[in-house]
Amino acid sequence: MSAFILFGAFLFLLFCSVPIAASLGLAGIFAIAEAKLGIMAVPTNVYTGIAKYPLLAVPMFVLAGAIFDRSGVAERLLRFARSIIGHGRGSLAVITIFVAMIIGGISGSGPACTAAVGGVMLAAMMREGYPPAFAASVTAAAGSTDILIPPSVAFIIYSVLVPSATVPALFVGGVVPGVLACVMLVIPALFLSIRHDFGGRETDEARPEVWKSLKEAFWALMAPIVILGGMRTGWFTPTEAAVVAVVYGLVIGAFVYRTLTLRDIHELLIESAETSAVILIVVGLAGVFAWAASTIGIVDPISKWLVNLGGGSETAVIVILMVFLTIVGMFLDGISIFLIFCPILVPVAQGFHWDLVWFGVLMTYVIAIGQFTPPMAVNLMVSCKLTGARMEDTVPWVVWLLLFMFAGLLLLIVFPQTVLWLPNVLGFS
Hints:
Layout: H1 2-15, H2 20-34, H3 41-50, H4 57-70, H5 73-85, H6 91-104, H7 110-127, H8 132-144, H9 153-161, H10 167-173, H11 175-196, H12 210-233, H13 238-256, H14 262-296, H15 299-309, H16 314-329, H17 334-351, H18 356-370, H19 378-387, H20 395-414, H21 417-426
Helix pairs in contact: 1-2, 2-14, 3-14, 4-13, 4-14, 5-6, 5-12, 6-7, 6-8, 6-11, 7-8, 7-19, 8-19, 8-20, 9-17, 10-21, 11-20, 12-13, 14-17, 15-17, 16-18, 17-18, 18-20
């Protein structure tokens, strides 16, 4: 009965459009009350859920991403990419994916990247003849890869839930899959652009000079290197790296690019505080939900059921989990998925002796796919709003992008070293 109340109340509240944080907390409270576990477990688990050292990095990385977004990084990266790729058919689609990948190394948030890149790229794409639905699809898919590119807030949350998977290992493990995801998006985007003659129209805009545009974009390109390089050399921990990223962004925005004013910084602090508060409230209330599920004793039966569902076959189980996470990813954000399902899925991974860094990156890759999969794709909603395209009009284009992303997922499943090689080489595993 307690298990039914826990999950039934959660689904019912979501269906009633109750915010996910409140749904998690209330469902946990109902189950705790029904099982007579003591209502004082609620505030204790809320505090325990957020009183974790790695979570200190979340507000800092959110602020760092906001600072770089406001500093005009996307425009500089656009000019640099355009100086290399030029104005041919499909060039803007490729540039959008490239710029999103670099922005992902700064913001780590899919919707934020989609908005930042889309604000610069979508108008340019439509001026060159790209249909709004196609432009929205490519931008949403490109933005989804950001939770794979370090620093990723999703990876930080996963490391809190799975302490054996450290933040540096996850950050480095996401690099190759993040680049692979971008390659898998470039192929269909370029193919469709050439096939349908998108882009390449005559324009009065001159091709930027390579060295000049590289000089302008240099400091933005250095940001991911500073963050990962500092952690690799031991100069600072992942949490300290978040603070370094903020200071680096402030120096670049205020003194190098000179695009940040005191008023901008004040607004960024408010926006970042609000975003961070939402994330940490979800984390805290999800702690109540997870504790209730664990104490009631429903995690192990569900994990065993999942294993039996695949007949004990590793291949069958991993396919079932990936399909399930893709469907869930259409409706929930990555952080919520980790908080709700990691307590259930990680025991399954441990039962098969899967590497938990590999499993975490795999989960994140699938969640990235869900972010631009209709009908409830958060990234696609952002890009459609910016272009005015209807969600249903994006389906013919999104299908191609999804097929190639799933091909990349297959490579990660068949060859785990695509995730684990770099952490092993750099000594993070």
